[in-house]
Amino acid sequence: MYAHRPTEVEIDLAALRHNYLLLRQALPPQVALLAVVKADAYGHGAVAVARCLQQAGADLFGVAIVEEALELRQAGIDRPILLLGGAWPGQEDCLVQHQLQTAVFEMAQLERLQAAAARRGRRCACHLKLDSGMGRLGVQPAELPAFLEEWHRFPALDLVGVMTHLAMADLPAHPHNSAQLRHFAEAVALVRQAGFSPRYLHAANSAASLAQPAGLCTLVRPGIALYGGQPFEDQPLAGLQPVMHFHSRIAHLRELPPGHSVSYGQLFVARRPTRIAAVPVGYADGFNRRLSAGGAVLIRGQRAPIAGRICMDWTLIDVTDLADVQVNDRVTLLGCDGDQCIRAEEWAERIGTIAYEVFCQVSKRVPRHYLGQTLLPAAESPAAAGGVVS
Fold first, then answer.
1. Residues 97-154: pLDDT tens digits?
2. Which of 177, 235, 243, 282 is the most buried (most CB within 10 A)?
3. Residue 38, Cβ neighbours under 10 Å: how many?
4. Looking at residues 168-187, what average pLDDT do you find?
Protein backbone atom coordinates (compact mmCIF):
# COMPACT_ATOMS: atom_id res chain seq x y z
CA MET A 1 0.00 0.00 0.00
CA TYR A 2 1.28 3.47 -0.82
CA ALA A 3 0.31 6.84 0.57
CA HIS A 4 -2.28 8.66 -1.50
CA ARG A 5 -3.17 12.28 -2.08
CA PRO A 6 -5.66 13.32 0.62
CA THR A 7 -8.33 14.47 -1.83
CA GLU A 8 -11.42 12.29 -1.87
CA VAL A 9 -15.18 12.16 -2.08
CA GLU A 10 -17.17 10.54 0.70
CA ILE A 11 -20.55 9.10 -0.33
CA ASP A 12 -22.95 8.81 2.58
CA LEU A 13 -25.13 5.77 1.85
CA ALA A 14 -27.25 6.43 4.94
CA ALA A 15 -28.13 9.87 3.55
CA LEU A 16 -28.92 8.30 0.18
CA ARG A 17 -31.29 5.84 1.80
CA HIS A 18 -32.85 8.65 3.86
CA ASN A 19 -33.54 10.69 0.72
CA TYR A 20 -35.02 7.67 -1.04
CA LEU A 21 -37.38 6.98 1.85
CA LEU A 22 -38.33 10.66 2.07
CA LEU A 23 -39.39 10.58 -1.58
CA ARG A 24 -41.01 7.16 -1.29
CA GLN A 25 -43.15 8.26 1.65
CA ALA A 26 -44.36 11.30 -0.29
CA LEU A 27 -45.86 9.05 -2.98
CA PRO A 28 -49.03 6.96 -2.97
CA PRO A 29 -48.14 3.32 -2.25
CA GLN A 30 -49.33 2.15 -5.68
CA VAL A 31 -46.87 4.42 -7.51
CA ALA A 32 -43.59 2.72 -8.47
CA LEU A 33 -40.23 4.47 -8.15
CA LEU A 34 -37.47 4.38 -10.77
CA ALA A 35 -34.15 5.61 -9.38
CA VAL A 36 -32.13 7.48 -12.00
CA VAL A 37 -28.50 6.31 -11.81
CA LYS A 38 -27.24 7.47 -15.21
CA ALA A 39 -23.90 9.29 -15.51
CA ASP A 40 -22.42 7.05 -12.80
CA ALA A 41 -25.29 8.02 -10.49
CA TYR A 42 -24.54 11.70 -11.10
CA GLY A 43 -20.92 11.11 -10.12
CA HIS A 44 -21.74 9.22 -6.92
CA GLY A 45 -20.90 5.73 -8.23
CA ALA A 46 -23.67 3.80 -9.95
CA VAL A 47 -22.91 0.34 -8.60
CA ALA A 48 -22.75 1.29 -4.92
CA VAL A 49 -25.75 3.60 -5.27
CA ALA A 50 -27.86 1.00 -7.08
CA ARG A 51 -27.02 -1.68 -4.52
CA CYS A 52 -28.07 0.62 -1.70
CA LEU A 53 -31.29 1.64 -3.43
CA GLN A 54 -32.16 -1.90 -4.52
CA GLN A 55 -31.98 -2.95 -0.89
CA ALA A 56 -34.03 0.12 0.09
CA GLY A 57 -36.78 -0.97 -2.31
CA ALA A 58 -36.35 0.90 -5.61
CA ASP A 59 -38.59 -0.74 -8.22
CA LEU A 60 -36.58 0.09 -11.34
CA PHE A 61 -33.39 1.88 -12.35
CA GLY A 62 -32.90 4.38 -15.16
CA VAL A 63 -29.73 4.78 -17.22
CA ALA A 64 -28.77 6.64 -20.38
CA ILE A 65 -26.73 4.07 -22.31
CA VAL A 66 -26.39 0.30 -22.60
CA GLU A 67 -22.92 0.32 -21.04
CA GLU A 68 -24.34 1.80 -17.84
CA ALA A 69 -26.99 -0.91 -17.71
CA LEU A 70 -24.45 -3.70 -18.25
CA GLU A 71 -22.30 -2.37 -15.41
CA LEU A 72 -25.29 -2.75 -13.10
CA ARG A 73 -26.19 -6.22 -14.37
CA GLN A 74 -22.60 -7.39 -13.93
CA ALA A 75 -22.68 -6.07 -10.36
CA GLY A 76 -25.73 -8.18 -9.55
CA ILE A 77 -28.50 -5.60 -9.93
CA ASP A 78 -31.54 -7.65 -10.94
CA ARG A 79 -34.32 -5.04 -10.90
CA PRO A 80 -35.68 -3.80 -14.23
CA ILE A 81 -33.36 -1.28 -15.90
CA LEU A 82 -34.73 1.25 -18.39
CA LEU A 83 -32.67 2.91 -21.12
CA LEU A 84 -34.23 6.36 -20.87
CA GLY A 85 -33.03 7.53 -24.28
CA GLY A 86 -33.32 4.24 -26.13
CA ALA A 87 -30.68 1.94 -27.61
CA TRP A 88 -28.32 2.71 -30.47
CA PRO A 89 -28.62 0.62 -33.66
CA GLY A 90 -26.75 -2.64 -33.22
CA GLN A 91 -27.32 -2.87 -29.46
CA GLU A 92 -30.64 -4.69 -29.66
CA ASP A 93 -29.29 -8.22 -29.14
CA CYS A 94 -27.42 -7.10 -26.04
CA LEU A 95 -30.53 -5.38 -24.75
CA VAL A 96 -32.69 -8.48 -25.21
CA GLN A 97 -30.03 -10.81 -23.80
CA HIS A 98 -29.75 -8.85 -20.55
CA GLN A 99 -33.48 -8.19 -20.26
CA LEU A 100 -33.16 -4.42 -20.41
CA GLN A 101 -36.18 -2.23 -20.96
CA THR A 102 -35.93 0.61 -23.44
CA ALA A 103 -37.61 3.80 -24.54
CA VAL A 104 -38.82 3.72 -28.16
CA PHE A 105 -39.99 6.53 -30.39
CA GLU A 106 -39.09 5.57 -33.98
CA MET A 107 -40.46 2.79 -36.17
CA ALA A 108 -36.94 1.63 -37.06
CA GLN A 109 -36.32 0.95 -33.37
CA LEU A 110 -39.33 -1.35 -33.21
CA GLU A 111 -38.21 -3.23 -36.30
CA ARG A 112 -34.70 -3.84 -34.94
CA LEU A 113 -35.94 -4.85 -31.49
CA GLN A 114 -38.50 -7.25 -32.96
CA ALA A 115 -35.79 -8.92 -35.04
CA ALA A 116 -33.46 -9.27 -32.05
CA ALA A 117 -36.21 -10.66 -29.81
CA ALA A 118 -37.26 -13.15 -32.49
CA ARG A 119 -33.67 -14.34 -32.92
CA ARG A 120 -33.40 -15.12 -29.23
CA GLY A 121 -36.94 -16.37 -28.72
CA ARG A 122 -37.61 -13.72 -26.09
CA ARG A 123 -39.81 -10.73 -25.51
CA CYS A 124 -38.67 -7.13 -25.06
CA ALA A 125 -40.27 -4.60 -22.70
CA CYS A 126 -40.62 -1.14 -24.23
CA HIS A 127 -41.68 2.28 -22.98
CA LEU A 128 -43.31 4.47 -25.62
CA LYS A 129 -41.64 7.89 -25.40
CA LEU A 130 -43.89 10.85 -26.25
CA ASP A 131 -42.90 14.40 -27.10
CA SER A 132 -45.47 16.37 -25.14
CA GLY A 133 -43.60 19.66 -25.45
CA MET A 134 -39.92 19.07 -24.61
CA GLY A 135 -38.97 19.03 -28.30
CA ARG A 136 -36.12 16.56 -27.78
CA LEU A 137 -37.09 12.92 -28.30
CA GLY A 138 -40.43 11.20 -28.64
CA VAL A 139 -43.37 10.46 -30.90
CA GLN A 140 -45.22 13.64 -31.89
CA PRO A 141 -48.95 13.74 -31.02
CA ALA A 142 -49.97 13.83 -34.68
CA GLU A 143 -47.90 10.71 -35.40
CA LEU A 144 -49.15 8.67 -32.44
CA PRO A 145 -52.24 6.93 -33.94
CA ALA A 146 -50.28 5.57 -36.90
CA PHE A 147 -47.37 4.58 -34.64
CA LEU A 148 -49.68 2.59 -32.38
CA GLU A 149 -51.33 0.88 -35.33
CA GLU A 150 -47.94 -0.22 -36.64
CA TRP A 151 -46.90 -1.54 -33.22
CA HIS A 152 -49.31 -4.46 -33.61
CA ARG A 153 -46.94 -5.83 -36.29
CA PHE A 154 -44.32 -6.53 -33.61
CA PRO A 155 -45.62 -9.36 -31.40
CA ALA A 156 -42.41 -9.74 -29.37
CA LEU A 157 -42.51 -6.14 -28.12
CA ASP A 158 -44.48 -5.50 -24.95
CA LEU A 159 -45.65 -1.93 -24.46
CA VAL A 160 -45.15 -1.81 -20.69
CA GLY A 161 -44.83 1.94 -20.28
CA VAL A 162 -45.68 5.34 -21.68
CA MET A 163 -43.34 8.19 -20.81
CA THR A 164 -42.64 11.85 -21.43
CA HIS A 165 -40.40 14.54 -19.96
CA LEU A 166 -41.42 17.90 -18.53
CA ALA A 167 -39.35 20.85 -19.68
CA MET A 168 -40.25 23.10 -16.72
CA ALA A 169 -40.57 20.58 -13.89
CA ASP A 170 -38.34 22.63 -11.57
CA LEU A 171 -40.95 25.42 -11.67
CA PRO A 172 -44.14 23.57 -10.65
CA ALA A 173 -46.52 26.47 -11.31
CA HIS A 174 -45.30 27.07 -14.86
CA PRO A 175 -48.20 26.73 -17.34
CA HIS A 176 -46.09 24.63 -19.72
CA ASN A 177 -46.22 21.78 -17.19
CA SER A 178 -50.00 21.60 -17.17
CA ALA A 179 -50.04 21.80 -20.98
CA GLN A 180 -47.57 18.92 -21.26
CA LEU A 181 -49.45 16.81 -18.74
CA ARG A 182 -52.68 17.41 -20.64
CA HIS A 183 -51.03 16.25 -23.88
CA PHE A 184 -49.63 13.24 -22.03
CA ALA A 185 -53.05 12.27 -20.64
CA GLU A 186 -54.57 12.54 -24.12
CA ALA A 187 -51.82 10.33 -25.53
CA VAL A 188 -52.31 7.71 -22.81
CA ALA A 189 -56.00 7.58 -23.68
CA LEU A 190 -55.09 6.90 -27.33
CA VAL A 191 -52.70 4.13 -26.25
CA ARG A 192 -55.46 2.42 -24.31
CA GLN A 193 -57.95 2.85 -27.14
CA ALA A 194 -55.45 1.09 -29.40
CA GLY A 195 -55.67 -1.99 -27.19
CA PHE A 196 -52.58 -1.57 -25.01
CA SER A 197 -52.51 -1.70 -21.21
CA PRO A 198 -49.20 -0.15 -20.10
CA ARG A 199 -48.26 -0.75 -16.49
CA TYR A 200 -46.06 2.31 -16.15
CA LEU A 201 -47.16 5.85 -16.96
CA HIS A 202 -44.41 8.33 -16.17
CA ALA A 203 -43.64 11.97 -16.74
CA ALA A 204 -42.01 12.94 -13.47
CA ASN A 205 -38.39 13.56 -12.53
CA SER A 206 -37.44 14.59 -8.97
CA ALA A 207 -39.33 17.88 -9.16
CA ALA A 208 -42.43 16.63 -10.93
CA SER A 209 -42.59 13.57 -8.66
CA LEU A 210 -43.43 15.88 -5.79
CA ALA A 211 -45.47 18.50 -7.63
CA GLN A 212 -47.74 16.79 -10.14
CA PRO A 213 -51.39 15.99 -9.45
CA ALA A 214 -51.91 12.67 -7.67
CA GLY A 215 -53.14 9.80 -9.80
CA LEU A 216 -51.78 10.93 -13.15
CA CYS A 217 -48.73 8.64 -13.19
CA THR A 218 -48.00 5.15 -11.92
CA LEU A 219 -44.20 5.58 -11.93
CA VAL A 220 -41.90 8.45 -10.98
CA ARG A 221 -38.23 8.97 -11.90
CA PRO A 222 -36.36 10.86 -9.15
CA GLY A 223 -32.72 11.69 -9.75
CA ILE A 224 -31.18 14.82 -8.24
CA ALA A 225 -33.26 14.63 -5.04
CA LEU A 226 -31.90 11.15 -4.26
CA TYR A 227 -28.45 12.71 -4.02
CA GLY A 228 -29.55 15.61 -1.84
CA GLY A 229 -29.88 18.19 -4.61
CA GLN A 230 -32.86 20.52 -4.58
CA PRO A 231 -35.41 19.63 -7.30
CA PHE A 232 -37.23 22.98 -7.28
CA GLU A 233 -35.73 26.23 -8.47
CA ASP A 234 -37.88 28.47 -6.29
CA GLN A 235 -38.78 26.44 -3.17
CA PRO A 236 -36.39 24.21 -1.21
CA LEU A 237 -37.53 20.75 -0.21
CA ALA A 238 -36.99 20.25 3.50
CA GLY A 239 -35.33 17.10 4.78
CA LEU A 240 -32.99 16.21 1.93
CA GLN A 241 -29.50 15.30 3.11
CA PRO A 242 -26.32 15.79 1.05
CA VAL A 243 -24.87 12.49 -0.09
CA MET A 244 -21.60 13.69 -1.65
CA HIS A 245 -18.91 15.25 0.56
CA PHE A 246 -15.82 16.48 -1.31
CA HIS A 247 -12.76 16.86 0.92
CA SER A 248 -9.04 17.49 0.84
CA ARG A 249 -6.45 18.52 3.45
CA ILE A 250 -4.03 21.39 3.95
CA ALA A 251 -0.65 20.36 2.55
CA HIS A 252 1.38 23.53 3.18
CA LEU A 253 1.07 26.82 5.08
CA ARG A 254 3.01 29.98 4.36
CA GLU A 255 3.09 33.59 5.54
CA LEU A 256 3.02 36.30 2.86
CA PRO A 257 3.77 40.01 3.32
CA PRO A 258 1.49 42.81 2.07
CA GLY A 259 1.77 43.25 -1.69
CA HIS A 260 2.59 39.60 -2.41
CA SER A 261 0.39 38.06 -5.10
CA VAL A 262 -1.07 34.56 -5.10
CA SER A 263 -1.63 32.14 -8.00
CA TYR A 264 -1.95 32.87 -11.71
CA GLY A 265 -2.77 36.32 -13.02
CA GLN A 266 -2.21 38.14 -9.70
CA LEU A 267 -5.95 38.04 -9.08
CA PHE A 268 -5.25 38.08 -5.33
CA VAL A 269 -2.72 40.49 -3.79
CA ALA A 270 -2.23 40.47 -0.02
CA ARG A 271 -3.27 43.74 1.65
CA ARG A 272 -1.97 42.65 5.07
CA PRO A 273 0.25 39.93 6.47
CA THR A 274 -1.57 36.92 5.09
CA ARG A 275 -1.53 33.22 5.86
CA ILE A 276 -2.11 31.00 2.83
CA ALA A 277 -2.98 27.30 2.88
CA ALA A 278 -2.13 25.19 -0.16
CA VAL A 279 -4.65 22.41 -0.78
CA PRO A 280 -4.00 19.59 -3.32
CA VAL A 281 -7.20 19.88 -5.33
CA GLY A 282 -7.93 21.77 -8.52
CA TYR A 283 -10.11 22.09 -11.57
CA ALA A 284 -8.83 18.75 -12.90
CA ASP A 285 -10.64 17.22 -9.93
CA GLY A 286 -13.87 19.07 -10.65
CA PHE A 287 -13.25 22.05 -8.35
CA ASN A 288 -14.45 24.51 -10.93
CA ARG A 289 -12.07 27.35 -11.82
CA ARG A 290 -14.94 29.84 -11.85
CA LEU A 291 -15.21 29.42 -8.09
CA SER A 292 -11.97 31.42 -7.84
CA ALA A 293 -13.86 34.72 -7.57
CA GLY A 294 -15.78 34.70 -4.30
CA GLY A 295 -15.73 30.97 -3.62
CA ALA A 296 -15.00 29.50 -0.20
CA VAL A 297 -14.24 26.24 1.58
CA LEU A 298 -14.86 25.00 5.12
CA ILE A 299 -12.00 24.50 7.59
CA ARG A 300 -12.69 23.67 11.23
CA GLY A 301 -16.34 24.50 10.72
CA GLN A 302 -15.65 27.99 9.36
CA ARG A 303 -15.70 29.49 5.90
CA ALA A 304 -12.38 30.48 4.39
CA PRO A 305 -12.10 32.33 1.05
CA ILE A 306 -10.28 31.03 -2.00
CA ALA A 307 -7.20 33.17 -2.70
CA GLY A 308 -6.48 33.75 -6.37
CA ARG A 309 -7.24 31.43 -9.24
CA ILE A 310 -7.89 27.74 -8.75
CA CYS A 311 -5.12 25.81 -10.52
CA MET A 312 -5.32 22.45 -12.26
CA ASP A 313 -4.03 20.56 -9.21
CA TRP A 314 -3.87 23.10 -6.37
CA THR A 315 -6.07 25.64 -4.63
CA LEU A 316 -4.85 28.37 -2.28
CA ILE A 317 -6.97 29.45 0.68
CA ASP A 318 -6.73 32.60 2.80
CA VAL A 319 -6.76 31.30 6.38
CA THR A 320 -5.53 34.50 8.03
CA ASP A 321 -8.71 34.90 10.08
CA LEU A 322 -8.90 31.27 11.24
CA ALA A 323 -7.27 30.39 14.54
CA ASP A 324 -4.94 27.43 15.03
CA VAL A 325 -5.06 26.16 11.44
CA GLN A 326 -2.59 23.32 10.93
CA VAL A 327 -1.14 21.29 8.10
CA ASN A 328 -3.37 18.22 7.53
CA ASP A 329 -6.55 20.00 8.65
CA ARG A 330 -9.53 18.77 6.65
CA VAL A 331 -10.83 21.10 3.94
CA THR A 332 -14.45 20.66 2.84
CA LEU A 333 -15.17 21.86 -0.67
CA LEU A 334 -18.66 20.38 -0.93
CA GLY A 335 -20.69 19.10 1.98
CA CYS A 336 -20.83 19.91 5.67
CA ASP A 337 -18.40 20.62 8.50
CA GLY A 338 -20.16 21.09 11.82
CA ASP A 339 -23.21 23.26 11.29
CA GLN A 340 -21.79 24.87 8.14
CA CYS A 341 -22.56 23.43 4.70
CA ILE A 342 -21.58 24.17 1.13
CA ARG A 343 -24.21 22.63 -1.13
CA ALA A 344 -24.13 21.94 -4.83
CA GLU A 345 -26.66 24.72 -5.39
CA GLU A 346 -24.16 27.26 -4.01
CA TRP A 347 -21.52 26.13 -6.47
CA ALA A 348 -24.07 26.14 -9.27
CA GLU A 349 -25.17 29.70 -8.57
CA ARG A 350 -21.59 30.96 -8.53
CA ILE A 351 -20.52 29.28 -11.76
CA GLY A 352 -23.76 29.67 -13.70
CA THR A 353 -24.89 26.07 -13.95
CA ILE A 354 -27.10 23.52 -12.15
CA ALA A 355 -26.48 21.08 -9.32
CA TYR A 356 -26.58 18.16 -11.77
CA GLU A 357 -23.42 19.42 -13.47
CA VAL A 358 -21.71 20.14 -10.15
CA PHE A 359 -22.06 16.50 -9.11
CA CYS A 360 -21.15 15.10 -12.52
CA GLN A 361 -18.02 17.23 -12.95
CA VAL A 362 -16.21 15.77 -9.91
CA SER A 363 -13.63 13.80 -11.84
CA LYS A 364 -12.76 10.12 -11.80
CA ARG A 365 -9.30 10.80 -10.41
CA VAL A 366 -10.92 11.66 -7.08
CA PRO A 367 -11.53 8.35 -5.26
CA ARG A 368 -15.00 7.70 -3.85
CA HIS A 369 -15.11 6.44 -0.28
CA TYR A 370 -18.43 4.87 0.73
CA LEU A 371 -19.73 5.28 4.26
CA GLY A 372 -22.32 2.93 5.69
CA GLN A 373 -23.38 -0.61 4.90
CA THR A 374 -21.16 -2.23 2.30
CA LEU A 375 -23.87 -3.94 0.24
CA LEU A 376 -21.14 -5.98 -1.45
CA PRO A 377 -21.22 -9.70 -2.28
CA ALA A 378 -18.73 -11.56 -0.08
CA ALA A 379 -16.50 -12.55 -2.97
CA GLU A 380 -16.26 -9.08 -4.45
CA SER A 381 -13.70 -6.43 -3.66
CA PRO A 382 -14.68 -2.88 -2.66
CA ALA A 383 -12.99 -1.57 -5.80
CA ALA A 384 -15.66 -3.27 -7.90
CA ALA A 385 -18.22 -0.90 -6.43
CA GLY A 386 -16.26 2.09 -7.63
CA GLY A 387 -14.46 2.99 -4.42
CA VAL A 388 -13.60 2.11 -0.84
CA VAL A 389 -16.29 1.05 1.61
CA SER A 390 -16.12 1.51 5.36
1. 999 999 999 999 999 999 999 999 999 999 999 987 576 888 988 999 999 999 999 9
2. 243
3. 19
4. 76
215 and 265 share one domain: no
Is the domain of 250 the same as that of 223? no
Domain of 167 in residue numbering reads as 13-227
Which residues fall within 8 angstroms of residue 283, CB to CB, at 6 or more apart? 289, 310, 311, 312
Say if pTM beats, i.e. exceeds, 0.85.
yes
Q: Are residues 79 and 208 in the same domain?
A: yes
pLDDT tens, position by position, 298-334: 999 999 999 999 999 999 999 999 999 999 999 999 9
Q: Annotation-wise, does 312 bind a ligand?
A: yes
Is 350 annotated to bind ligand? Answer: no
Q: Name the H helices within the chain.
A: 13-25, 38-43, 46-56, 66-74, 92-97, 107-120, 144-151, 175-193, 206-211, 344-351, 355-360
Active site residues: 38, 264
